[in-house]
Amino acid sequence: xxxxxxxxxxxxxxxxxxxxxxxxxxxxxxxxxxxxxxxxxxxxxxxxxxxxxxxxxxxxxxxxxxxxxxxxxxxxxxxxxxxxxxxxxxxxxxxxxxxxxxxxxxxxxxxxxxxxxxxxxxxxxxxxxxxxxxxxxxxxxxxxxxxxxxxxxxxxxxxxxxxxxxxxxxxxxxxxxxxxxxxxxxxxxxxxxxxxxxxxxxxxxxxxxxxxxxxxxxxxxxxxxxxxxxxxxxxxxxxxxxxxxxxxxxxxxxxxxxxxxxxxxxxxxxxxxxxxxxxxxxxxxxxxxxxxxxxxxxxxxxxxxxxxxxxxxxxxxxxxxxx
Amino acid sequence: xxxxxxxxxxxxxxxxxxxxxxxxxxxxxxxxxxxxxxxxxxxxxxxxxxxxxxxxxxxxxxxxxxxxxxxxxxxxxxxxxxxxxxxxxxxxxxxxxxxxxxxxxxxxxxxxxxxxxxxxxxxxxxxxxxxxxxxxxxxxxxxxxxxxxxxxxxxxxxxxxxxxxxxxxxxxxxxxxxxxxxxxxxxxxxxxxxxxxxxxxxxxxxxxxxxxxxxxxxxxxxxxxxxxxxxxxxxxxxxxxxxxxxxxxxxxxxxxxxxxxxxxxxxxxxxxxxxxxxxxxxxxxxxxxxxxxxxxxxxxxxxxxxxxxxxxxxxxxxxxxxx
Amino acid sequence: xxxxxxxxxxxxxxxxxxxxxxxxxxxxxxxxxxxxxxxxxxxxxxxxxxxxxxxxxxxxxxxxxxxxxxxxxxxxxxxxxxxxxxxxxxxxxxxxxxxxxxxxxxxxxxxxxxxxxxxxxxxxxxxxxxxxxxxxxxxxxxxxxxxxxxxxxxxxxxxxxxxxxxxxxxxxxxxxxxxxxxxxxxxxxxxxxxxxxxxxxxxxxxxxxxxxxxxxxxxxxxxxxxxxxxxxxxxxxxxxxxxxxxxxxxxxxxxxxxxxxxxxxxxxxxxxxxxxxxxxxxxxxxxxxxxxxxxxxxxxxxxxxxxxxxxxxxxxxxxxxxxxxxxxxxxxxxxx
Amino acid sequence: xxxxxxxxxxxxxxxxxxxxxxxxxxxxxxxxxxxxxxxxxxxxxxxxxxxxxxxxxxxxxxxxxxxxxxxxxxxxxxxxxxxxxxxxxxxxxxxxxxxxxxxxxxxxxxxxxxxxxxxxxxxxxxxxxxxxxxxxxxxxxxxxxxxxxxxxxxxxxxxxxxxxxxxxxxxxxxxxxxxxxxxxxxxxxxxxxxxxxxxxxxxxxxxxxxxxxxxxxxxxxxxxxxxxxxxxxxxxxxxxxxxxxxxxxxxxxxxxxxxxxxxxxxxxxxxxxxxxxxxxxxxxxxxxxxxxxxxxxxxxxxxxxxxxxxxxxxxxxxxxxxxxxxxxxxxxxxxx
Lengths: 323, 323, 336, 336
Ligand SMILES: Cc1ncc(C[n+]2csc(CCOP(=O)(O)OP(=O)(O)O)c2C)c(N)n1
Ligand SMILES: Cc1ncc(C[n+]2csc(CCOP(=O)(O)OP(=O)(O)O)c2C)c(N)n1
Ligand SMILES: [Mg+2]
Ligand SMILES: [Mg+2]
Known about the structure:
By secondary structure, chain A is of the alpha/beta class. Chain A has helices at 2-7, 12-37, 52-59, 75-80, 85-92, 127-139, 158-170, 189-192, 217-232, 263-270, 273-280, 285-307, and strands spanning 67-70, 116-119, 146-151, 174-180, 183-184, 187-188, 208-213, 238-243. In chain A, the strands form two sheets. Chain A has a six-stranded parallel β-sheet with strand order 2-1-3-4-8-7, with helices on both faces. Chain C is of the alpha/beta class. The radius of gyration of chain C is 20 Å and the shape is globular.
């Protein structure tokens, strides 16, 4: 029964929470695009519009002391893992109040207290560290799981191969979540991946793998819960491939010259994970407006918070190099 | 018919040639062990005793202008690819007459004229280069194949993953020959490989793969011929896994404390590729003695040649850094 | 004389080489449809097609290695590593393979490979997209190392790198892509190993690379207003190094500043300082000053990033420091 | 005072740390049953078991990265990279991850990781098993770099590295494993960042690291016979560097030689030379001489290998060179 409850029917209430979180990510990312256009945000920014169901589905399946490593496309994961939008936005503005105190930026979001061990601007760079974190959990007999997010493009880098091999060999409690959006920057799948089904990559390690529709948060949540249980139970790591869509450019400002003109519009129509979820929920217009208003307020608040934040002193740059 | 001839029945004559070559490698390697114990050979030496059928089976299937990249365990490949034992032995003695002119040594054997692009002392180090060589052949529409040898241990390094992925993606004429001897130095398969069947690693790239008994030279030759034909025909690369046995230590002088005491004796009994081949051949005692004598003379000659060779001048070290 | 941006100058060298020579091709991440993350190869896919303008998976080791393999077959590949921070992934192939094949083979092989990469701070990319790592490669026998600072230099040097029979690490600086310069109508190859004197002067020699060449030129202008005449030398090729031009300059000026964006500690300036103090010992009227980034990873927040990396005022301060010492103090006691 | 070999001293530091502290464990290729390619960890599997003496696949990136991840969870892993030539495979993890996590997180994380590795020429391993690459890491803010030359140093420094809260690159030299020294009964931690004066002297300071410390001591003995008194300083920690001890020594002796096995160009000696000429400019009576390997990959043939790397006679020649200059020539003209 518990089994069914956990894996199968996600309660309407929980789904509403997912909805709210996904919408928060969406509105947050839209705000990032807007503030970037306004010239307020430094750095290289990659938003997760279209991929919200993966971030939320996976992170909501985590327990509080599980840890994650994220990627250059990190805002969604970071919010879903519990960092307050204020702290995230403040980081994007380079403020002391930011989740990385202004040292990291969009591609280096950390929130160690909440189990975010860092977004990584080097593709695949965070995967071995997740194996190590999971190894520490195993050493200490802690029922914790370490989770790595990464894109389809990252499955081509040697780090991916070595990390998954090691994880399986040592049967550490790790889950590898591939956000398979069919692109690595401008490079489409067929130019970088000689296979269609990325979950097959797990066979090289005898690793348990699962491939799910990443636009369906319920499906992601269920699969992630199962993967986490497997890993937490000592049965070894899991590769979870979530097929998803990048409903935006690679980076904020990307003219996407490489992308078929109509693809984006069509996908926005058919593959929006928030629309999909909303279609399944019994949301009244009032509900929708209420959630929307709440979320927008939070996002607006985060911009205010960030702008009112403190710029580091130049000399602060000398701190935090060594412990 | 040609098909059958090529793949199926290898003529008795050809098999005798294989026998002679395998025996040459064996006697050469034994001589290397002997000369090392006598304190004559500098450097780190790894002999291929037990793995002769892979070197000969693959290299005899090559065409003359195909190229190979080898490993730290390179003597067998080098001899099988046509380098004269004199030049190989001279290299091991660090002589100007050596196949790398004394600059390379056992782990860096080159013979570019004969298509040996170099042994590599970095595990996996030669694989990407083989992809590049194959790409050049493809660019130039040359019907040549580039072949990489490597061990089971090398399938765990990122270079392997990236190289195979790239090769398949670009459908270059390359063949990846894994000499699966169950050990990486002192590390047994179960401590480094979470799967049993290494040919499965090809599935991560959708690459054609074949696993064969590497102690049976006929089987290796047939499989290699097929793989080369596939690659040469433009159908893409092949992973060829040859299960074999290291009937000796990892390096010359290795006390093998890590290896079950009786394993080696037992394997030498049951898994000697030369014994296996000889059992299949109609060799008279006279034949055997004749071949033995011939091979021993060559090997002895190579030591004489090497010892009579020229030591480089110290200042020669300044040459060949830049073209 | 057409005017080219640094970006266009790189593209022009690549394109001209590819037009005249089938053996030249380029490979790298997102260099095709997108034209590279910095837009350097924009339009080249259309002209040369996807075989020769080859998009790759994210596999820095393999793409550098594939370049090595093709180069050993006599081609002249140009690999783009998107950020020099990612050369960290390809160090094995660059250092153990590309740099050593010729030597280990006793001269049987050549590796005419060019690895283009870019980096540097500016616009807050953060610690993993802003390093300046050229010094590492200067420590590797078998490699050549180029760091071009102007459109004409980058064009002529890239050409020579492509046609050099050795592996060349070719560094571009991200903030320079937009700068413009009149360049000769015909591409003029610039031999590797030749420094460029950007500005002659009498009192101090500033040896600068990459972005700091421009900061040094600016600082020289300001110093002139203070009555100090500065000679600005850009080695352009860091390996092999045109030691003669640098040393002769210092023998004339008796003072030396070395400036680059990389962190000072163990940076290229250390090598220059070590050479200059050795070869021009008796000519030096002041310690050689080094200008570089502070010894920290590049921080994200713009105020910190800006403060960490050197600018013309830092070069100027170093110039002042060297001329601030009276000549007579040399050898006669310690002046702090 | 027990006598320990350098090899035993490393093992002793590892074992003592593992005995007192569950958070310390070691991982690397062939470190378990075989005891490491250099026999350093022999016997440790028996004492500590396969979980804490962890054999790994050939995956330099992942094993360094796994060390990073475990370190971020508060463990104190010691990763062995079999040859420093293979650090080339792990540069990304070392440089972009280990060195930067603390900084990029604004101080939220610590990475108390030690990466032990060894290298150097000797016995003809060839170009890919003999490099000395320590200089690269000195260029990376966030790392510490140690290079120990004696049994007592290696023991005390390794202990401090394990208990340092930062990632430490810990270099051992292959030819030193057999050397012996009396060491204190109780392990005495040696603080990182403290140089050791091996021998006091008046006329020349030789700053040497790794194997060259021993060559320098030998050269100092020979120089003494010639009437030249040599002070030999081993920085031991290359980053952070004990500049004061070096500079004070040169201020006393007025002459300086820097010696290491790595190639001279862009080697650690360049940094020392740059610092010394800067901080002791007015004290220097002669150019700082650098001793290092010739600028070639390490060749195989013993006669070439031997000739390429520096020995005590090279240090002695450099000492002679510095004292061969008359003091009065300084500042008064050029002496070649
Ligand atoms: C090692 C490395 N190479 C190249 C890059 C540049 N880069 C940043 S994101 C990206 C594409 C990543 O694709 P994918 O992993 O599918 O993630 P997505 O952007 O689709 O979320 C590339 C090539 C990088 N950051 N790191
Ligand atoms: C990158 C790298 N790591 C470690 C080593 C040290 N090493 C040399 S051979 C070897 C084992 C190789 O095993 P395998 O690939 O199976 O080849 P085999 O020796 O069994 O023929 C190791 C770890 C190396 N040469 N290169
Ligand atoms: Mg993607
Ligand atoms: Mg093996």
